[in-house]
Amino acid sequence: MSGLIPQRFIEELLDRVDLAELIGSRITLKKAGGNYKARCPFHDEKTPSFNVRPDKGFYHCFGCGAHGDAISFVREFDNLGFTEAVEELARRAGLEVPYDQAARQEMQQARTLTDALEFANGFYQDALQQPGAALARDYLRQRGLDAATIEQYQIGYAPGDGQALHQAADNSLQKPLIETGTVSDKYGRPRDLFRNRIMFPIRNTRGKTIAFGGRTLGDDKAKYINSPESDVFHKSREIYGLFEAQRALRRLDRLLVVEGYMDVIALAQHGIHEAVATLGTATNQDSLQALLRHVRHVVFCFDGDNAGFRAADRAMENALELMADGLHLQFLMLPQGEDPDTLVRKEGPDAFRKRIEGAAPLSRFLFDRQSEGLDLNLPEHRGELRARTEPMLNRMPRSTLRDAMWHEMLRLCGRREWQGKREGGKDFRRFKGSERISEEPVEVRLSKDSSLSLAVIEAPELAEEVLEAARRDRSLRQAASLANWVRESGLKRHGEVIEALAFDSRARARFFHLFDGIEHVPERENILASARELLTPNQEGVRQQTITALMKRMATGQSTAEELQELIRLQRGEG
């Protein structure tokens, strides 16, 4: 919807807003020269590190990195979407947002649907208090929920009468209820979708009801059912409990993803407020992206049965293509027969938090799962492990994490050290137990130029990356020459490169002295591992030094607009 608001209006609005007055209406600011300082509202701190620059129109926290303008502050502080934040600021400034007619109609339609769903939510909450809901109240009591938690998550009850909701709604709401699927007219007459069920409203990050989940109190075949998708509800993009978690914690550093509504609610009642649930049977890439828009650290929590491990495997596989440096994914598998709801009640919140802290990182979980059933003392099984894991690692984007996991795969799949002895003139050899001992290679000291030249021969697909590295490092002359020849010759495989070097007289003359002075050529795995390290240099130290220097300039009021943009880019990990 942001694209439907003219950019010139947004710029005018930001010019009209007094940033210090806006932020000061929500937190306590103290004057510091021409700026203002405060304790950051987005993370816990004792020493103020939150700076407001009204003259430049931005705020910045040196503690957690929160940064932005008036719109981003309102979005973050009030949990609003972009459009709602613009509308709030326009209201304060006495301006009207200039939507075009199509946008106005789209927004009005969405508001009509959410108004109807809000009515249904209120109806279900009221129904829970009625005499006919005694069974529902008993069920919630048996599950250990107190009144405060029921109110926090707005839990309700759908009466068994198939038309109770439809008849309670006035004429203006009946059609929108049908459009959202909360009431069905599939059989020629209105009939409530949810009947004799405990009701869990699904709310978006602004707290608006957009759908429902219902848990049967009878013997229905479907224990849980959800609202169908609608113009305001897209199952794969919504996270149950996210709104409540944001309200309880103000700033989310981590999300614990569990499998059910009651798991989320039970954990919250025991003080673990970061628990949320994705909707549907699997954590797909859409739901993962929805999670990662709010945090960089996600812990997946699954039951320790076969179904739980299958769900964890799907979540892991869907996460691979999204993994980048700075993201932290972990997997917590519970004891078999337990779920978060039962376990937190049995062992208490402190013990459950210890389980969360000890969750397995994605890298360990991946190798542990793919190693199951394998004896890595056997060459065949090491080959099987590589066949399982290499395609998974190749799906990951280039990153330090992928390179580290690649090295771990090579370590696990590498040859074992042999222990041999002679008996009766015969040479008997065996493995030294079941230890994971990596190969002790001949020590080879190669220049960067020679290492990358070898890598291009072994893996011609690296030619473009080597040429890019050569543009940064002029000492890579022979690697650049070889990579350029490979690219221009259209060579795609190792064998093609070897054949061309052997039979193409011009190529043979050009690269005849390429490896003069190399007494030992490393194994292919070592060549490629070395190349990956050279092609993915660790720039973290340089990045941190640049960030520190830019922050100092900003704190003294000397930073330019270009330097500010550079700081934002580096802090986002784009540099």
From TrEMBL:
CDD domains xref list: TOPRIM_DnaG_primases
Catalyzed reactions per annotation: ssDNA + n NTP = ssDNA/pppN(pN)n-1 hybrid + (n-1) diphosphate
Protein name: DNA primase
Renumbered zinc finger spans (CHC2-type): 40-64
Keywords on record: DNA replication, DNA-binding, DNA-directed RNA polymerase, Magnesium, Metal-binding, Nucleotidyltransferase, Primosome, Transcription, Transferase, Zinc, Zinc-finger
Family to which this protein belongs: Belongs to the DnaG primase family.
Subunit architecture: Monomer. Interacts with DnaB.
